[in-house]
Amino acid sequence: SDSYYIGVARCDVTGPVVQVNMMGYAHPEQVANGLHTRLYSRAFVVADNQKQNRVAFVSFDGGMASQLLKLEVVKRLKEKHGDIFTERNVVISGTHTHSGPAGFFQFLLFEMTSLGHVEQSTTAFVDGIVESIELANSKLELGRIKIGSGLVDNGNINRSPTSYLLNPEAERARFVHVVTSRDPLGMLSWYPAHPTNMNFTNLLINSDNKGRASTLFEKMMRKPGETLAGKEFVAAFAQANLGDVSPRTNGPNCVGFGPGKDMFDSTDIIARRQLDAAKLVYKSATERLDGPVDWIHQYVDMTQQSVQLDDGSTVTTCKPGMGYSFAAGCTDGAGAFNFVQGMTRGTPFWNTIRDILAKIICTVEPPREYYNCHQPKPVLLPTGYMDKPYDWHPTIVDIQVLRIGQLLIAAVPGEYTTMAGRRLKERLYNEAVIKLACSSGAFQVVLAGLSNVYTHYITTPEEYNAQRYEAASTIFGPHTFQVYQQKYTDLIAPLVAGNKDDVDLGPTPDLKPANQSRIAPVPHPDKLPPGINFGDVISDVNMTYTPGDTVKVTFHGANPRHNMKLGSTYLEIQRDEHGSWTTIYTDADWSTKFTWLETNSSAPPADITIYVIIEWNIPTDETAGSYRVLYHGDHMNEVGTITPFTGMSREFQVS
Ligand code: ZN
CA 393 to CA 476: how far, in whole Å? Predict the structure, then answer.
């Protein structure tokens, strides 16, 4: 008795790997100069056994979903497939890697450090997400979904423990880790941890601990001879309520680090801790999902919502604003100037700067009531009024829940803290199970973080009062969480009763402003010194290596942005297998690194030299034999013609 039609797919969304700011730390100097691991979109499409209703859940290796991404993806799907996929039954959730490209938003604050919009980032994400949903949908087959939960051993740490401890004691012991599976199709898990093991000094595009766990799980499930392009097992380590959760388990303070010897090692360790827990649950899960597939969705303007609290009082949300402690940064990032966490009062100096800026950036200056609304947060950036040259922050958000049998997936537009997430899950659980006395048994509620539209953080009211980094970044004011809790709760009754059409769609957000800033660098024609060809070796490999060594070769190269090589690779590590060269590793593999260096960029174009460095850290269990390194590039001439080329190292031995 198979319960559902299930389809899974994984597509490459890597995007530009050089000249692009990374999304997450908002650090102007964190501009990518190469590639460590490729980024993927992992799509899961589930339909009931009559194919009446279907939902699509996507977890992709990016900083977060943006409203622009979701609207573009849905627009494309509607054009091609009618009403099969809409904004209402598609959830797009980012893993929150801080080492992916930036520039895929329609709001200015998110594109400050990327110098505006980056078309290649957006295109790679949109194309790959659409393709993964379509591919998963084309592969629907009848199957079963099992669910389970488990504990990840030492996989994260709370980075704002002082705010967290303000929450009542009794709420602190639970979390759910859900794995759905049907051998051999796929596995989907939700576990909260910031993918910030790679810190802001990293300049190689990288999917951090979530992506590393996914590729390790997928590799484990791959059958001998099965290639990346074929029908393959898809394992997603999706993001949950990670707001105050750091993966730097050696310390929860502002200089958090660990647990490995360097950031690559730490990423691997935290990935393997998630992997171990997922493997255990995957093998032991017995509970089967059973019941309808459904979804419910509403757009809500968060700037003008109110909610009645338990004591009978009515409270409202505010237009967006960022507090002083936002500028102080947090455990996983870095702050600036004299800002510290926990600031509940502004300073005359910065308030003056703020008010001068507001006169320039806001059509209407923020009134006193606006600042009062955010109390006790001192507002540093009144983003809700900042609309020049276009809007700085979103105001309309998606409130959305998917249902697969007894599993409810609440897609939330930002980073819920541990406790805010638990309270929301508990409320939804109670609403579904207790109030409605459902026949299909106990519901399991998971939170899919960083979904659909990004609105920074969501803390509990207690945490908001402490005004640490997460609270200063809770943009719709002190009652943000209570309003969300009410909005999600209101959708549960119609969802469980199958009355989703009774719910009003709400105000539709705009796709994007026409005057979006585009000053980020774009790739130029490539130059070479006389007598040199693209792909020529500058410094070659050694003749012999032993496992554990790092092979390194440097080529005359070209800007990799001329061809993003989606679904392909910039490099190959090949081994001589009985006289024929066989590709063993690509640029997607953990053991390889692809670095691009442009020298003399201020000199005349003829003097610009572009180096490409390919490194391969030979795994300790690597087979002995003859190897070589290939570099695949594309160069552009003055009239814009792009020509592929290949460079090759000499042959070397691994003994
Ligand atoms: Zn974050």
Answer: 11
Token pair listed for 629: 């390194």
At the topology level, CATH places domain 537-654 in Immunoglobulin-like (2.60.40)
382/324 Cα distance (integer angstroms): 11
Integer Cα distance of 367 and 331 in angstroms? 33
Q: What is the whole-number distance in angstroms between the Cα of residue 552 and the centre of ligand 1?
A: 34
Instruction: Render pLDDT for 53-93 as a digit per residue (tens, 0 to 9).
Output: 999 999 999 999 999 999 999 999 999 999 999 999 999 99
- 415 annotated as a binding-site residue: yes
Q: Which of 423, 444, 496 is nearest to 178 (CA)?
A: 444
Q: Which helix (H) or strand (E) element contains residue 552?
A: strand 550-556
Amino acid at 202: N
Per-residue tokens: 129: 């997400």
Contacts of 278 (CB under 8 A, 6+ apart): 150, 177, 179, 187, 189, 213, 217, 235, 237
Q: How far apart are CA 518 and CA 19, in angstroms?
A: 14
- Using DSSP, state whether 73 is helix, strand or coil: helix
- Residues 200-250: tens digit of each pLDDT: 899 999 999 999 999 999 989 887 666 554 457 899 999 998 888 888 777
Q: Compute the distance from residue 193 Cα to the ligand 1 centre, in Å.
A: 9
- Rounded to the nearest angstrom, the gap between the alpha carbon of residue 263 and the centroid of all alpha carbons in its chain is 18
3-state secondary structure 138-186: HCCEEECCEECCCCCCCCCEECCHHHHCCCCHHHHCCCCCCEEECCCCE
Domain ranges in the chain are 4-300+393-502, 537-654
Task: Please state whether beta strands 592-599 and 31-35 pair in parallel, antiparallel, or not at all (unpaired).
Answer: antiparallel
Catalytic (active-site) positions:
246
Measured CA to CA, the distance from residue 15 to residue 311 in angstroms comes to 50
List C-alpha distances in Å: 428 to 66, 169, 376, 425: 25, 21, 28, 5
Global pTM?
0.94
Residue 489: phi and psi, rounded to 5, are: -60, -40
With H, G, I as helix, E, B as strand and everything else as coil, classify residue 645.
strand
Quote the ligand 1 centre to 196 CA distance (angstroms).
8
Beta carbons of 402 and 291 less than 8 angstroms apart:
no
Nearest to 114 by CA among 598, 565, 517, 594: 517
The model's pLDDT over 305-360, given as tens digits with 9 standing for 90+, comes to: 999 998 999 999 999 999 988 877 654 555 555 667 778 888 888 888 889 889 99
Classify each residue of 187-226 as buried b or exposed e, where b means 16 or more C-beta atoms within 10 Å of its C-beta: bbbbbbbbbbbbbbebbbbbbbbbbbbbbbbbeebeeeee
Q: Does residue 177 have a known ligand-binding role?
A: no
Distance 415 CA to ligand 1 centre (A): 6
